[in-house]
Specification:
alpha/beta, Quinone Oxidoreductase, Chain A, domain 1, Rossmann fold, 2 domains, seven-stranded mixed beta sheet, 9 helices
């Protein structure tokens, strides 16, 4: 038996509860993992609260991330005792995920835990930090350099935003952090932000082409925020779009793209190929100051996840939530 957050649905509605499950209920897969830590991400919050239909199959164990130790494997890349990380691949949506003490997965989905990180560190980073690293990789591959000017990060106090600021600052960029939480300015500056903006500057409808300001953008919001960010990006700049916290719509024009040569870079973390994942984790292991993780993340027990998901969806959470699934 193992403990897990379990989402169920029947004719009377959907429920979320902490359950004790028999190992025989684990899905098929070629690697079994004893989970040490998981996380509570925005997508997990949507799944647990039912705010959006992200769960495709019921019953479901949510949790798009996990870090743990392989206990059984028929996959050529993994053996008993290997320490591994999972991010995405439909975990918590179409396949049972990481908010449990045990998981059975496809070995092709896993990457090795970098030696510089503990399992807790890896989950303080999680999909949010891995996505932030993918964004930074994409901007650098585009040719973005510190001497070209500021980089804007939207949703700056969230998990993606927090780690994007830290990585960009380490790479030598001046970072403008956009947030709806002005009381968190000290936190953002500790991460490396040089300027803090009220998100209201970007969250309403604006002109299709505005005064140039940013050399590049990491956007977690979508909607009007993304449209305004593109409209203010400098000639030849790039916008890495990885989130939809404000909405899935994109009320913009083609003006920034055809008049200023701005590039819109879509960042997918769920199905990204393994080579890209390994490169992102390599950047994190090299450039992220592990000491910042205590500032970015806080830890909860598995039994606190359902309550914490409600707080997350109400915008009451800063940074990352690490889940110790064994307490």
């Amino acid at each position: 038996m193992f403990s897990a957050v379990l989402l169920e649905k029947d004719g009377s509605g959907r429920t979320a509860r902490l359950a004790e499950l028999a190992e025989e209920r684990l899905p098929e897969g070629d690697v079994t993992v004893d989970v040490e830590y998981s996380t509570l991400n925005y997508k997990d919050g949507l799944a647990i609260t039912g705010s959006s239909p992200v769960v495709r199959n019921f019953p479901m164990v949510p949790g798009i991330d996990l870090a743990g130790v392989v206990t059984e494997s028929t996959h050529a890349d993994w053996k008993r005792g290997d320490r591994v990380v999972l991010n995405g691949w439909g975990a918590g949506e179409t396949r049972w995920g990481g908010l449990a003490r045990r998981a059975r997965l496809e070995g092709d989905w896993l990457v090795p835990l970098p030696a510089v990180f503990t399992g807790r560190d890896a989950m303080a980073i999680g999909t949010a930090g891995y996505t932030a690293s993918l964004c930074v990789d994409a901007l650098l591959a585009h040719g973005t350099r510190p001497e070209q000017g500021e980089v804007l990060v939207t949703g700056a106090t969230g998990g993606v935003g927090s780690i994007a600021i830290a990585l960009l600052a380490e790479a030598g960029f001046e970072v403008a952090a956009s947030t709806g939480k002005p009381a968190e300015e000290a936190y953002l500056r500790e991460l490396g932000a040089t300027t803090v903006l009220d998100r209201a500057e970007l969250s309403e409808g604006g002109k299709p082409l505005q005064k140039e300001r940013w050399a590049a953008v990491v956007d977690t919001a979508g909607s009007h925020t993304l449209a305004n960010a593109c409209a203010r990006t400098r000639y030849g700049g790039a916008v890495a779009a990885c989130g939809l916290a404000q909405g899935m719509d994109f009320p913009a024009s083609v003006a920034p793209f055809i008049l200023r040569g701005v590039s819109l870079l879509g960042i997918d973390s769920v199905m990204a190929p393994k080579a890209r994942r390994l490169a992102a984790w390599e950047r994190l292991s090299r450039d992220l100051d592990v000491r910042l993780l205590d500032t970015i993340a806080r830890e909860i027990a598995l039994g606190e996840v359902i309550t914490a998901a409600d707080r997350l969806m109400k915008g009451e959470v800063r940074g990352r939530i690490v889940v110790d699934v064994n307490r």
